Amino acid sequence: MKANSFSREALIAAIALAILVTIPFVSDSSAVIDFGIRLAAFAVFATSLNMLVGFGGMVSFGHALYFGAGAYSFGLIMQHFALPIPIAFLLAVGFCAAVAAIVGAICVRLKEIYFAFLTLAFQMLFHSIIVSWTFFTGGDQGLMGGLPRPPFLGLNLVDPTDLYWFSVVVGVIALLLMRYILQSPFGYTLRMVRDNPDRAKFLGVNVWRIKLLAFVLAGSFGGIGGIIMALLVSGAFPDFTYWTMSGEAVFMVLMGGVSTFIGPVLGAALLLGFNDIITRVTEYHGLALGAIILLFALVFKHGITDFIAQGWQRLTGKKVES
Amino acid sequence: MDTEALFECVTSMSCLVTQTSTGLIVGSLLFLVATGLTMIFGVLGVVNFAHGSLYMLGAYIALSAFRLTDSFIIATVIGALGVGLFSLFFERFFMRRVYGADVLMQLLVCYAFILILDDAVKIIWGSEFQSMGMPAYFQEPPVFLAGGVIPVFYIYLIAISAAIAVGLWLLLNKTKIGKVVRAAAVNPSMTSALGLNTSLIFAGVFAFGGALAGLAGALAAPVRSMSPGMGFSVLIESFIVTVIGGMGSVSGALVGALLIGLIRSFGSIGFPYFIEGVMFIAMAAILVLKPSGIMGKDNR
Questions:
Q1: B63 has pLDDT over 50
Q2: Could you tell me if B236 lies within 8 Å of chain A, comparing CB atoms?
């Protein structure tokens, strides 16, 4: 990977960031701000899952564990210790990495469906710990009482607009970092492990270590999504680690497309948009969402970005690199 | 954690009998759901993530049939048949399209159906808790055994499940149908080359597995309260059962189901807040130590 390609990615990220940051000056609608914060959380979360699903070939159905782990560890640190937000942020990400290292060390050896199950099992185990450890986590009610959010660097995260700026900056930086990681030699080794683990092994690659590293990275970035969400709702809830959260993330990845980096971000935007519209129009949320999922899974068969990429390919005759 | 209570129960005969019988009926119902799941996996190679919803559908159909006919037997039969028919429809129009696709697609199609069926139940039967109540002819005084109490309905339930387990074993091992199904599981393209319609076999197995889940739902109706979304905990438990027993293995499903049933009933005394945790740990341990499960053969 050449250096100018790195700076091109950085330029794209800077432009995106510049546009996103100016949005509150154009529209002060609270719905837009709120959507932006949620999108930042889920774009990072879905993209981190795609590191495993799309680039590592590991279909995890328990990724919400890290979303919840990020939210709960961040929330508990803020409630129990008077730490500045950036330090609590890093500690929470570290906690997610540690959890992912333990779970990953056990899971990544397993094949397809067994991997999906075991990740799901660990997630539900974490969920049942959270629900039953009432005096520490608040049990069913979630982490109540609000999170103290002391101002730092001139940002007061209690204010929605400040939180929006914080979220989009963190979100774009996290996405850029993931992009760099996936374009690095490690990223290409991960793709090789996905496509042909035997060949990778013959070439001297330690398959288990590469997969584990990807798992830990995905868990850490997934935790960042959870932290943003915890800041938004000023708490953490058991639903964050429930299987439906993993299901939605998987669907975001699929809807956007697994073969492009930006796909899951688009998928997150689409699903959040659908959810908002559906809840406004009908009380039968599942029925409508289920129908949309079936449409994507059976009719389109691929995500939106795959369609665009294929169309582009046909137009230019050039293969789009994932 | 209340090890003292657990120890007291294990050493007292009456508590032992009561808890074991509870464990057995939980296990029997789980066996019916899990065996369908494991057969579908063994023959079709797909995991039916919507299996818990079929269980739920069975319970609700049986509820309506029971209110109409006032006969529990007819209600059970209609519950099983109705869900069997629905499974056939689900397989022919939806699942069949994702057999060759990756796990992600299969998960998603099932996930969509879980959402849709939960809402369909809400629309048809309402979102509040419902219960069938114990049918009149099971309202007999319970059987006392060594000081323990066993309701009559439990005995009926365990007997039906045992009969189905035996019948299933005979069907799979002693009949031509069983031979064909096992052949399709091992090598579908060869089976099809020999002139057997594998697509039909797949549909049949899926419908049969679905009908078993529906039967379990119908049988559970008198003892469990019903609500939309009730299928999910059953789904998770039957997954744990199939993984512990070995995916694709019917005898493994029996062993796994009884094990989970007993963990549930004794766990409610010893570690009520951590039953699920113990089940997940058991599953994780099996996956790490012997991924093919207790009774499973090593996978293709």
A1: yes
A2: yes
Residue B297 in any domain: the answer is no
Mutation target among A61, A117, A248, A278 for the B interface, most CBs of B within 10 A: A117
Using CA coordinates, name the residue in chain A closest to B239: A117
**If you average pLDDT over residues B49-66, what whole number do you get?**
93
Residue pair A201/A27 in contact (Cβ under 8 Å)? The answer is no
The residue of chain B nearest to residue A59, with distances taken between CA atoms, is B104
Residues of chain A found within 8 Å of residue B92, distances taken between Cβ atoms:
none
CB contact under 8 A, B240 and A106: no
Chain centre to alpha carbon of residue B47: 13
What residues make up the domain containing B69? 3-289
For B48, the token pair is 């039916």
pLDDT at B209 over 90: yes
Please tell me which of the candidates B281, B287, B288 has its beta carbon nearest to residue A125: B281
> Helices B176-186 and B152-174, interaxial angle, to 10°?
70
Q: What is the pTM of this model?
A: 0.84
CATH number, domain at B266? 1.10.3470
Q: Which of residues 256-275 of B touch A (CB under 8 A)?
A: 273-274
- C-alpha A171/C-alpha A269 separation (Å) is 13
Only one residue has tokens 């808890």, namely B19
Q: HSE of B78 in the Cβ direction (CA atoms, 13 Å)? A: 17
Burial B201-239 (b: 16+ CB within 10 A, else e): bbbbbbbbbbbbbbbbbbbbbbbeebbbbbbbebbbbbb
The predicted structure's pLDDT at residue A66: 94
Domain membership of residue B248 (yes or no) is yes
Question: Is the dihedral angle over the CA atoms B242, B246, B248, B254 positive or is it negative?
Answer: negative
CB contact under 8 A, B280 and A125: yes
Q: A290 falls in which pLDDT band (50, 70, 90)? A: confident
What single-letter DSSP state applies at residue B94?
T
- Min Cα separation B222/chain A (Å): 27
Cβ pair A125:B284 closer than 8 A = yes
Q: Residues B69, B71, B72, CA angle at the centre, nearest 5°?
A: 130
Instruction: State how many domains chain B has.
Output: 1
Q: Which residues of B touch A65 (CB under 8 A)?
A: none
Own/partner pairs for A146-154, CB < 8 Å, 24+ apart? A146/A234, A146/A235, A147/A74, A147/A75, A147/A78, A147/A79, A147/A230, A147/A231, A147/A234, A147/A235, A148/A78, A148/A79, A148/A82, A149/A78, A149/A85, A149/A231, A149/A234, A150/A82, A150/A84, A150/A85, A152/A84, A152/A85, A152/A86
Q: How confident is the model over B258-279, as a mean pLDDT? A: 83
Structural contact between residues B275 and B267, judged by C-beta atoms closer than 8 angstroms: yes
Could you give the domains of chain A? Answer: 3-316 (1.10.3470)
Q: What residues of chain A lie within 8 A of the CB of B94, using their CB?
A: 294, 298
Asked whether residue B300 is domain-assigned, the answer is no
Please state, as a whole number, how many other Cβ atoms lie within 10 Å of the Cβ of residue A34: 15
CB A287, CB B228: distance < 8 Å: no
Cβ neighbours of A106 in B, within 8 Å: 284, 288
Give the closest of A254, A286, A301 to B119, CB-based. Answer: A286
Is residue B300 predicted with pLDDT exceeding 80?
Answer: no
